[in-house]
Specification:
Layout lengths: L2 E5 L3 H13 L3 E5 L2 H11 L3 E4 L8 H10 L8 E5 L4 H9 L4 E4 L4 H17 L1
Amino acid sequence: MADILLIEDSPTDAHAYGTLLRASGHDVLVASTGEEGMSLAQQHNPDLIIMDIVMPGLNGFQATRELCRMDATSSIPIIIMSTKDQESDRIWGLRQGAFDYLVKPVKKRALLKCVNSALAAHERV
């Protein structure tokens, strides 16, 4: 189906969400830091990026903003998936260029619906 880059510093969340996405037919590449995720995005040009916010070093807001500004990665849709659940966090994430913002823990159906919507929107571009 799609190549998805999951940028998540929690090994537990990376395993759980990666397993769910793979079971749905997607190829998943995992990065545990914002810096690693940016590098992998440039190298592999995934169809979609799922981004955590709270990470050491480059946080997800910063990484999203940078990926959306770079020519090589600006067309890749990014879904932010974070425990930060304030409305201001969601608005800030979308202002950085994210396609959507989901609050953890994310239900399986909600994640897959969001992934499918982002991929469908990306195909139309």
